[in-house]
Structure formats: structure tokens, C-alpha cells
Amino acid sequence: MRMTREKTVVQLTYLPKVFPVNCYLVEEEEGLTLVDAALPNNVNAILRAAEQLGKPITRIVLTHAHADHIGSLDGLKERLPNAQVFISKRDARLLSGDHTLDPNESSLPIRGGLPKNVRTKPDVLLVDGDRVGSLLAVAAPGHTPGSMAFLDTRNDILIVGDAFQTRAGVAVSGQIKLLFPFPAMATWDKQTSLETARRLRDLKPSLLAAGHGNMVLQPKRLLDKAIATAERSLVK
Predict the structure, then answer these.
(1) Please, what are the domains in the chain?
(2) Which of 1, 134, 162, 199 is most buried by its number of CB atoms within 10 A?
């Protein structure tokens, strides 16, 4: 996996030139927080990256429960039995195989690679405003009902899962980029995604770190453009 560091965050990318799948190591004083767990065959690469950084992975935090974000979870948990696992209270249901929707949620079907037979049970169920080390948990529904983003409060780096993509250009979840349409195809509710995108922009991130594509420094202009594009699309 390719390693790219920006301040306290290291992006790990599987197949960066073909089909980039990202996860992130967030460096804390005593250890590392892994945000997302990529694909099942990425266990060893993630552990090697942590070894290079010289610190143990003590937490595994999931932005949402799609297969390309939780793929190595079981394998990592076997190797790191003391690492705590965090996911939103809402997407914990998806992780467990429950695809039902709440009465107050859009009736659109939940899309994407939904997990099957995941053995790992989360230790902590997150809600908006919770803290995970230096990370602030921010509710970011739309791609899935319980998606979350995580803001590093030390430097305003924002890890967004699939609330945005940066591969083939910055886009709000649900808006198709023809050169990389897959996050859009796996999005549950485009209108909710747009509302989330506005909220994440208002956090004024210094860097945008998405599930697919390179990290983007000072992303405000590109976020504004992506949100305007989504707004026009949804008016049609």
C-alpha cells in the first residue's frame, strides 16, 4: 500500500493508480488510530505501515459499513485483539447484517457492498459529537444512513469516508464522475448526502481525506464547486 503523510495523518492506498481504496492511520502520542479497514487482503500491509510508524494500532474506527471500508476488520481484530473498534450506532446495524430503515429515514434502498458474516463486534457505538482520541466524530449520513466523518481537532484534517470522493475530481457522494462512478453508485440518498456535504464544508477543513482518491489540501474551492454541482443536479 502506498503511504502518504500529511501532518498527523498517513493515507494508505491500495491500487492507487487503478482502483484506489484508502484507509488512514492517525498518529496519537501513545499509538495509532486506524480509520477504515480497506479490503480483506490488506491486513498485512496495514500492520506493516504501523510498524514503520513505530506505534501500535490501538483503535479501529469505521466511517461506514461498506465492504471496502471494513474488509480487513476481522483479520485485523484477530491480530490486534486489544484494539477497540468504533462505528456509528446507526451503521453498527449494517455491520451486523440488519438492512432495515428507520421510519424517519428515506425509503430508498441501502446500496453498495454490504457486509456479510462479519465476526467482529464493535466496542463503542458513536454518535455525533463523540471524541475518539484527537478525532471529533461528525454525523455524515447519505452514502449510508450512519456514515460518519472524523475531524482531527489538532489541525482540521477531515477524514470523510465516502461523503466525498476525490478520485476523478472532488464530488459529493451520489454525484457520478464518469471516470470513477463507483462511490456514487453505492450511495443511499443523494439529498441527504448534499446536506452532509454542506455541513462538512462548514467545518472549514484544512485537508480533505476521502475513501477514494488523493488527499486535497485547502479544499474549500473544490468543495464549493462540488456542492454547487450537486445542487444543480438535484434541482433537475
Answers:
(1) 2-235 (3.60.15.10)
(2) 162
